[in-house]
Amino acid sequence: MNLKKYLVRALHRLQKGPGYTYKELLVWYCDNTNTHGPKRIIKEGPKKKLIWFFLTLLFASLVFWQWGILINTYLSYNVTSSLSIGFKTMKFPAVTVCNANPFKYSEVKPLLKELDRLIEAALERILQPGNSSDSVYPPLDLELWNQMPLVLIDEHDKDNPIILDIFETNQTAMGNETMGNLTTGSDNCTYRNFSSAAQAVTEWYILQATSILSKVPLHDRIRMGYQAEDMILACLYGAEPCNYKNFTQIYHPDHGNCYIFNWGMDEEALNSSNPGAEFGLKLILDISQQDYIPYLSSAAGARLMLHQQKSFPFLKDQGIYAMAGTETSIGVLVDELERMGYPYSDCTVNGSDVPVRNLYSQYNTSYSIQACLRSCFQNHMVESCGCGHYMFPLPEGVNYCNNEDYPGWAYCYSSLRSSIKQRQICIDSCKETCNDTQYKMTISMADWPSEASEDWIFHILSYERDMSTNVTLDRTGIIKLNIYFQEYNYRTISESAATTIVWLLSSLGGQFGFWMGGSVLCLIEFGEIIIDSLWITIINLISWCKGLKQRRARARYPDAPPTVSELVEAHTNLGFHPLSPGAGREGTGGADSGCKAVAWWVTEPWKSLKGTLKSLILSPSPALLAQLCHTMEQSLGMGPKLLLTSEAAEFPFPSHYNGNSKN
Amino acid sequence: GGTGGRGGESGSVKAGKMPEGKKMRQCKQEEEQQQQKEEEREGLIEFYSSYQELFQFFCSNTTIHGAIRLVCSKKNKMKTAFWSVLFFLTFGLMYWQFGILYREYFSYPVNLNLNLNSDRLTFPAVTLCTLNPYRYSAIRKQLDKLDQITQQTLLDLYDYNMSLPQRDWSTSSSQRRSSRSLLHHVQRHPLRRQKRDNLVNLPENSPSVDKNDWKIGFVLCSENNDCFHQAYSSGVDAVREWYSFHYINILAQVPDAKALDEPSPRFHSSSHCLNVSVPLSGTIPTSTIPLYGNCYTFNDNSSSVWTSSLPGINNVGLSLVVRTEQNDFIPLLSTVTGARVMVHDQNEPAFMDDGGFNVRPGIETSISMRKEMTVRLGGSYSDCTEDGSDVPVQNLYSSRYTEQVCIRSCFQLNMVERCGCAYYFYPLPDGAEYCDYTKHKAWGYCYYKLLAEFKADVLGCFHKCRKPCKMTEYQLSAGYSRWPSAVSEDWVFYMLSQQNKYNITSKRNGVAKVNIFFEEWNYKTNGESPAFTVVTLLSQLGNQWSLWFGSSVLSVMELAELVLDFIAITIILAFRRFRTRQKHSPPGPPLNSQDNTAFQDETPALSAPHRFTVEAVVTTLPSYNSLEPRGLNRDGEVGHE
């Protein structure tokens, strides 16, 4: 019940309006606002008023200009970076070691027999043109050749290059020669050009050999590669022994079996708390150069790479070679970049918001931009060629490309690889990781083992590997690696926001306070003024409409209805006669409202007016009484005048008066 | 109609909540209080008589924006409520922002400044070691004996008969005694093969055991026969570690390390630097690091430091020809051929292990340096030390403080404390002696245990040692080429052997050339400057004050005054109530204060809280009241009061 009363009252309050006109409102605002300046406009003389008006306007625009700059600065999301260098206990990087040669030649020889014969014959043709010696060899299987022949391109005549298949004709052009290999598509062909025959033959051989080997199941390929116990002869981490069992095997398409130390997959990553070789990882590897595939890998050595725990090693991109017969010392400095995420920079924390399906997640590795780019390429490859490239992992339900099942794959692959558009799509969709860790290496080499000590070292290592007293190792196959932290082992660049919301607010406030002495409350004051003026406008509009209606209604009365004062007079003074209403309304709020009020009073039952008057008189106010008396005297003595202010009944609802009187 | 300030409201609420009887009693008490107040008012300084008055005065006179709105819009209840909610909301927001600002300030953020300096570069000190431990004459006999023992061990374990260089075994009685004692000590730490996780000594070549399950290591025992195996997965590491363990012991027996510093013919080099040829042949080794052989430091004395003003190899740089031939080698220690170079600042020790750079024989290694300096702000900005004087670790090195110097000193001091002797590779503290198993039988056990604790940071060395505020880093990168080339080989070797009067036997492996030069003319400096100073903090705080309330420090003072006044009033009122209760506890006092003006001020406020008005200095809206129909009523009230 009480609540209803309050609601009704609030409603009436709303209907009544703020109770003043625009000008009053403005003056009141200028007088009472807390911003400096407006007060001066109304208080000073006319000339100064103008100056103050323009000054206030100028400073207000200055404030808005500054605010614009500040908000713009904030929205550009700048960062500041801090750098720290020093030594601390850090997680030792994961170390991936591979042999440069993917498979043991002794194991894969049966598979590559045909190909080797083919390439030997081709080499002979290239080296000794014109000397056909086909009869010496058993007939070659030209099926492999015909899928992708090696050709000789004579570019003496730029416009009409002469293309010669090596096995088709004995005639070769001399001079400016370009080797190329022909890649056949289903209906069109493309040439990959090389300036050197050595490059062309190697590339051709790699393409052919991988095509052959991709048909071999994975566990057979792993078996054909180098085994951990043969490759890793000794391992020492700080003072703790480790051996090949501490390494995780992973199959790399280019390098065969790779072994990762400290990958952090099963057990905790190792920490290193001291710099120096004595506290790092020491490895002795054997790469057994005798068992290299002759045409496949022309570089001999171990491929190694340092990377973060749980990240996939991309050896082709970041791997380094270690030379046989040397001790390679690698001093490591961890270079970390910690970026702020969105909206400060466009990076991803764990790759979950990247629209590319990460194919490397099957290795349970974390996201990296290389993984993303490769997955992106592979996805495109599967889409356009129908099969996956052997270098990258496969999505489900897709096979690797080979020449038999997908004869046009090589053409499709090379056109996709050279497509700039495809590359751009991948670069655009892949994001960098927010926390980027790189391992800066200082690599140096010395001869190992020394002439003086190689005797006992080879003996002991051979004995440990084969239990034989004969030396089965030699300088061309043995590699020592020392991987350790440098004196300063980390350099971290971390970003922090240059502008925070606190900064923005205080700068905004500072500018506002500096130019105009204002605060947030002043803005709210301003808002209040706007609401008030809107309120007035609405109420005026309503009253105007009502007035319009009233004017129509007035037509029914021949004479203007009596005003409130007249009614009062009529009630108190029976001899009083109302005068013309037009005279009474001068200088008041508005003709409309007056008319309306009167109209209402006329239509309203008499008792309501009586009650109002009673309450007016009953409320103990000597001043009011005095005023009443005074106005009565005046009206009686000086002729008819409006007694009460005409606005008194601007919205003369009876309940309003009731509520007011209760107050 | 609306009520006045918040004070009035709260007062009325308080009164309204009370039951009637209580209210009556309170009224009586109020009366008495008023009486007393009247008395006091005459005597003491003028003060607010109630909370309400206080708040009214505060709201109308304060410079805090918004407070004034509470007073001047009091006739509109909705607005008053709105403004009071707003007032407290902004207040809360401001203090939240203050909290963030303070937190930011006390995290002491710094700005990073990158500078590229191009002033004259001082050439750093260069230390070069031959990677070839020297067979000193003082310990030659013992080493020969150790070689023999090793030979026997290798034969036992690996069926490998190591060929030892022929020496004359003069068997004098003293030598025999010493060698017998050596044999005894070596046998205390035998190298033996063991099955994984099993201390049983296995027979060799036992076919049942997979070779991969074997480990090799040596036994270290404490004095009370608590033993553990220092195990290795490979014999190469095990044999070398075992050998170097004994080698250290033998070295430690030599009382004065200076006795080892004999000019050795190991290092014959020529060098030209800074356009001036500095003859270096016959240079006395500056230090000896047992596993790295003789070491020579160039450009170490700070009196005549070389300066470099031009980059590149041809202008200024250090060019050394190093003889890497291994003549008088120790086969089990010098497994590597070459030399190790390290670039460091003057007055900093060279830790060859951490920052060294290997040089291959038969190769010209061109090492280009890039200098980078980091200068940190000390104090509360980052945890660093200017000169190490505030680090609780005694600096055992004679050089400047660096982090590694401190960590090594810390380890050494712990070693002396725990094991009673000092580790041979680190400098000797005062009053200590180097570990040696003739005197300290169990030091090996103690050392390896301590090392494990050190790594796990049980010793706290990594916490105690702080980074230096200023550090210099040299980033090295290298290029390699064959040297001497096939055509120039003959005359180069001829010249070198003529100059230095020795014969180079192994041509390719005999010499190495090192060039060290600055890659760039300038060097990089990473500096720091405080990002958030007191001035910034104050201006940010001021900005916040200004933003939310448009006020200044003086407004804060006003607030403080308000709080003080509030407390004062509370105390006064409480004191009065206390006194009234004491005075008139049994009978109620007579109602004799009808003519008390103060009473009249107060009582209506309690019974009809909205009847008072504020004597606001604020200019009220002109004709605001007069416009309302109830204005008459209101005017009357005002006039009445």
Automatic annotation (TrEMBL), chain A:
<dbReference type="InterPro" id="IPR001873">
    <property type="entry name" value="ENaC"/>
</dbReference>
<dbReference type="GO" id="GO:0034706">
    <property type="term" value="C:sodium channel complex"/>
</dbReference>
<keyword id="KW-0968">Cytoplasmic vesicle</keyword>
<dbReference type="InterPro" id="IPR004724">
    <property type="entry name" value="ENaC_chordates"/>
</dbReference>
<protein>
    <recommendedName>
        <fullName>Epithelial sodium channel subunit beta</fullName>
    </recommendedName>
</protein>
<keyword id="KW-0739">Sodium transport</keyword>
<dbReference type="InterPro" id="IPR020903">
    <property type="entry name" value="ENaC_CS"/>
</dbReference>
<dbReference type="GO" id="GO:0030659">
    <property type="term" value="C:cytoplasmic vesicle membrane"/>
</dbReference>
<keyword id="KW-0812">Transmembrane</keyword>
<keyword id="KW-0406">Ion transport</keyword>
<keyword id="KW-0915">Sodium</keyword>
<feature type="transmembrane region" description="Helical">
    <location>
        <begin position="50"/>
        <end position="75"/>
    </location>
</feature>
<dbReference type="GO" id="GO:0016324">
    <property type="term" value="C:apical plasma membrane"/>
</dbReference>
<keyword id="KW-0407">Ion channel</keyword>
<keyword id="KW-0813">Transport</keyword>
<dbReference type="Pfam" id="PF00858">
    <property type="entry name" value="ASC"/>
</dbReference>
<keyword id="KW-1015">Disulfide bond</keyword>
<comment type="similarity">
    <text>Belongs to the amiloride-sensitive sodium channel (TC 1.A.6) family. SCNN1B subfamily.</text>
</comment>
<keyword id="KW-0472">Membrane</keyword>
<keyword id="KW-1133">Transmembrane helix</keyword>
<dbReference type="GO" id="GO:0015280">
    <property type="term" value="F:ligand-gated sodium channel activity"/>
</dbReference>
<keyword id="KW-1003">Cell membrane</keyword>
From TrEMBL, chain B:
<keyword id="KW-0739">Sodium transport</keyword>
<keyword id="KW-1015">Disulfide bond</keyword>
<feature type="region of interest" description="Disordered">
    <location>
        <begin position="1"/>
        <end position="39"/>
    </location>
</feature>
<protein>
    <recommendedName>
        <fullName>Epithelial sodium channel subunit alpha</fullName>
    </recommendedName>
</protein>
<dbReference type="GO" id="GO:0001669">
    <property type="term" value="C:acrosomal vesicle"/>
</dbReference>
<keyword id="KW-0812">Transmembrane</keyword>
<dbReference type="Pfam" id="PF00858">
    <property type="entry name" value="ASC"/>
</dbReference>
<dbReference type="GO" id="GO:0031514">
    <property type="term" value="C:motile cilium"/>
</dbReference>
<keyword id="KW-0969">Cilium</keyword>
<keyword id="KW-1133">Transmembrane helix</keyword>
<keyword id="KW-0963">Cytoplasm</keyword>
<keyword id="KW-0406">Ion transport</keyword>
<comment type="similarity">
    <text>Belongs to the amiloride-sensitive sodium channel (TC 1.A.6) family. SCNN1A subfamily.</text>
</comment>
<dbReference type="GO" id="GO:0016324">
    <property type="term" value="C:apical plasma membrane"/>
</dbReference>
<keyword id="KW-0894">Sodium channel</keyword>
<feature type="region of interest" description="Disordered">
    <location>
        <begin position="169"/>
        <end position="205"/>
    </location>
</feature>
<dbReference type="GO" id="GO:0015280">
    <property type="term" value="F:ligand-gated sodium channel activity"/>
</dbReference>
<keyword id="KW-0407">Ion channel</keyword>
<dbReference type="InterPro" id="IPR020903">
    <property type="entry name" value="ENaC_CS"/>
</dbReference>
<feature type="compositionally biased region" description="Basic and acidic residues">
    <location>
        <begin position="17"/>
        <end position="39"/>
    </location>
</feature>
<feature type="compositionally biased region" description="Gly residues">
    <location>
        <begin position="1"/>
        <end position="10"/>
    </location>
</feature>
<keyword id="KW-1003">Cell membrane</keyword>
